[in-house]
Amino acid sequence: MQVAIACKHGTLDKDQQDYVTQKSEKLLTYFERVTAITVTFIFEKDRAKVEILVDAEHKHNFVAHEEGSDAVGTFDQVLHKMEQQIRKYKERIQDHRRAPSVSDES
Fold it and tell me: Rounded to two decimals, what is the model's pTM?
C-alpha cells in the first residue's frame, strides 16, 4: 500500500509529509483492503484545500475534502471524515442483523 502526497501551488516540509504519511497509514486499521491513498494539498492565498482519495479492492473508492487556513489542521479534519466514511461502510457490509427479506418470511 502506498501513500502519495501531491501539493499544488505550495509545498509541505519533510516533517509535515512524514506526519501525513504516518496518519494516512492508520486508515488500514479500519479497512484492510486499501490499495492506495492519495492526499492532495492545494494552496490558494491564505487557504489550504485538502483532499484524500482512498482506493480499495473491489471498486470501492472513498473521497473526502476540506478547506481551512492551516494545512496540517485541515488534513486532520479531512482524515477524520475519511475514518467515518470507512467505518460506516465497513459496518454496512458486516451488518449480519439485517431484516429478513420478504421471501424468507413465508
Answer: 0.80
